[in-house]
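ok here's Penicillin-binding protein 1A, seq below lol
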Amino acid sequence: MTAARRARRRRWPRVVAAVLLGPLLVLGLVLGLALYLLYRSVAVEVDARLAGLHDRVAPKVYARPFVLRTGQALTSHELDERLDDLGYTRKDQAVAPGEFDVQPTEVRLVPRGGTAEGQVVRVVLSLDAAGRSGQVRSLESARGGKIAEVELEAPLLTAVAAGGRGRQRQLPLAQFPPAVVQAVLAIEDRRFYSHPGVDVIRTFGAVVTNLRGEKKYLVGGSTLTQQLVKNSFLTPEKTYTRKIREQMMSIVLERRLPKDQILELYLNDVYLGQRGSFSVHGVAEGAHLFFGKDISNVTLAEAATLAGIIQSPAAYSPTRHPAKARERRDVVLRAMMESGYITAAAGETALREELQTAPGSIDAEAPYFVDYVTQLVIEQVAMRASAKRVAVHTTLDLHLQRVAQDVVAKGVNEIEARFAKGGKLRGPLQAALVAVDPRTGDILAMVGGRSYQRSQYNRATTAKRQPGSTFKPFVFLAAFELALREGRTDLTPATVLSDEPAVFMVNGEEWAPRNYDGEHDGVITARRALARSRNLATIQMADLTGYQNIAALWRSVKPGFTARPYPSIALGVFEATPLDMAEAYTLFPNLGEVRPLRAVSRIEVDDGVAPLPEMGHPRHVAQPGPTFLVTNMMRSVINEGTGAAARAAGFALDAAGKSGTTNDLRDAWFVGFTPELLTVVWVGLDDNTPVGLTGSQAALPIWTAFMKRALSGHRSQAFTVPEGVTFVEIDKDTGGRAGPFCGHLLSEAFLAGTEPQTLCYTHLGLPGGTLTQMPELMQVPVGQLPPAPPVP
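and the structure came out like this:
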């Protein structure tokens, strides 16, 4: 080979390099510039997303402060739950504020606020026959001896995530128990504190491990930072470009925030599945919804369960798939042992722990009420872009809410078990309950159905059904109002009515109403007609009053509602929701004044207070005297009428109420109240077919169970008697002034000047049947009493 040829060969690589170097440099510069521009673009997007995260507000919805009272019906388990609602931590011995300990017959707690702030309070519980605590026997302060009540903080119902259909409880990282943090890190990202956002070693190792099948579970390659970016910053589509953006955004995010802050965002935002119509975000919310606990009180096994859900919330839901959830929990526990977070002994103990979820835990969070509040205020006020902090303080009493949910669930189950065998039930029952403070209109409890998990339809606020006989008190109120205006004396609680078959012409067609039991009482007083819910006698009173007057009264009670002035109005043949009836009935304990119902007491936005949604103002729709007469008559419903089963069940407080049964037994109602608590219960079928039960059979047992527990420890309060009302002793069967031989006496209330002026004639020795055969002789004027028959 010549020297020239060798020289040419030596020059060839240099020529090729010279030719390629330029394009490669250009390509490198272009790629570098593209990566830089992409990085800048991603960085700008990350900064914008972070600003959105920092500015994002999750409105917190609170119940009213929890109050412990002497005599209150409360088991130690229920008190444990209430304290858990407040985020109190269970200890072996309560010392610091926010701690409590549980003994066999007492619970000791240290309130974080209120009149007993910082003091150890002993809650002494009495035991029932089964040896379980069932009532607060006494409250004792370490400083001041026995106290009547202790007001604690307002429990958080939920924090409504952006969009209104998510639920989360945001906490600083320091408030998450170490076991929860360690469980998440062990199963999701063990190298979290050492990688820059993307873990190449983890990704490669995950691929190899999964291919070799070295683990009994698939190992994920995404870091916590990548998961946070994927769930909070990006759209859900799966493409290669999206994956690249995810990795770059993760690297940028790690340069923008410290590791602890990224971990805090992740723990608060991680998706844990659906409960009803709500999406569950964050392990703190998950602890409440799955275990009914504050995150500070979860066990090691429960912490592992929460961490195990993250990979696949649908597959590892502890409520829907408990076996898979436990298997996944055990994987997490073993991962924690491998990582050195827990000892083998602690891990083995946790592995043996049964997986127990809180039954109906989402229902315990008042979801129907939260939906209602969300519709009222969250969309209008709390979701404003300018708000940094929003706290919605509601009127809900969480203790009464839990009682309401419990009695509705148990009551419907008992009704189905009792009547299903007889073939009376024609489908799965539904129920609704609304409890309010009639003095203020505050909604204290709301149950919109027997299970929110199965149905989010709120029957308490949305289901319009015929109120039936629960409307009858308004018929008598219209009558007594007319008597007061016109000075009539024939419209009183002692007015004698005919409970006999009758036919009415309505729009050219015959209408022949009957009593729900198909029987007739003949001659009956107005009081007894209401107590026994007699349709025909009530229609006669409506006829004497004027249907126009009754319709006008209802329009003033519920503006915007239409009730046609036909005879059927006396039987409640129009539509209303349980919430509507609750508001309407507030006029009775308030002597003629309707209290608009309210669910929100205060809205705090940033450092100020936002205006409340307009709920209306109290309306005077009837005079105190006539209103009291009807309330006094409704006391007979519970004492001896269609609601008498409440007394037989042990409800002893003075109360008034009315059962309701609609046409063909489609709906069952009971509305009843004391001066401090008014409760409406509806039971029926969603398809509006006949339920086949009366209000006394279906709704009254639920009402009674709720009132007994809600008012346990309360003293009976009398209804206020207004001026212009007098009491006269009458014969309760005939309505006449009591004579010397009347055996069934009643101190009846009358508007002054309308008292009966005749004495009862029935119990003076007249032949049997005279009362029905000679109604004109039923009473005789005072002073014209005939001679008494000889004593045999």
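fwiw Residues 3-55 form the longest helix (53 residues). kinda neat tbh
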